[in-house]
Design goal:
Length: 244
């Protein structure tokens, strides 16, 4: 039986030129989102990444002082694979990111610097589809990003000398949402998405005993295939889109 048509995801808006992706950790964008990023940069769009932390608490066998710089390097390499050269780190502490005005201020400043029309972030809700508990960093950063899209446009909130307000964010797109509304065809960007996630090699080798490429490919294609069931059968990357 076919799904009712109103259950289908709509295509993402195309009338924009700059996007800013704001997430908590190295690899947050590569676990599902970077096939979309690759096709957007192919189309000439400018995309920058802002990471709240360096993911320094992500590897049990490696001290944060060693882990942070390594994961930063892996993140820069994985961004480059999908055409993203600007990667910034806000230096909040991995694992204990606090939702609040300090985080909102830092994200609003990044939005004012980059002046994006589209802001991308990761699931800000308590769970992944009611199945698995989300991490506090994702919840804090996702929520603060949704809030900062508004903060950035108000000159009286977090005023900073030399930084003009930016009220041009038209949408915030939340990746990994269990209630997505929109999607992007994942096919053109899929090979680079695989290579991009593979750049997080140290992290992945600790995470799984499987061959890294087999693990990454089956994770990303499986996710895109499942999403595609609601996008005319094409492998897809889904977002929950909040318009402003
Ligand atoms: Zn994460």
């Amino acid at each position: 039986m076919t799904e009712p048509t109103n259950n289908q995801l709509k295509p993402m808006p195309e009338d924009w030129t700059r996007a800013l992706a704001v997430v908590a950790h190295p690899d947050d964008l590569e676990y599902g989102c970077s096939a979309a990023i690759a096709s957007w940069t192919d189309g000439g769009r400018e995309i920058a990444y802002v990471l709240a932390t360096r993911g320094e608490a992500g590897i049990d066998t490696m001290e944060p002082a060693k882990c942070g710089p390594l994961r930063e390097q892996e993140q820069r390499a994985s961004a480059a694979v999908v055409g993203v050269t600007e990667v910034e780190f806000l230096d909040h502490k991995d694992g204990v990111v606090e939702y609040g005005t300090a985080l909102r201020r830092d994200i609003a400043a990044a939005i004012r610097r980059h002046r994006p029309e589209l802001v991308i972030t990761l699931n800000h809700r308590d769970t992944w589809g009611g199945v698995a508990w989300n991490t506090p960093d994702h919840v804090a950063v996702g929520r603060a990003t949704l809030d900062a899209a508004g903060d950035a446009g108000n000159r009286w909130i977090f005023p900073e000398p030399g930084l003009e307000p930016w009220n041009g964010v038209r949408w915030v797109a939340v990746a990994g949402s269990s209630t997505p509304t929109h999607a992007v065809d994942a096919t053109p960007g899929m090979e680079r998405a695989v290579l991009s996630l593979l750049e997080h090699r140290t992290y992945i080798e600790v995470l799984t005993d499987e061959d890294p490429e087999t693990y990454v490919r089956s994770f990303l294609t499986g996710y895109a295939q499942t999403t595609g069931e609601r996008f005319g059968g094409k492998p897809a990357v889904a977002f929950e889109l909040f318009s402003r």
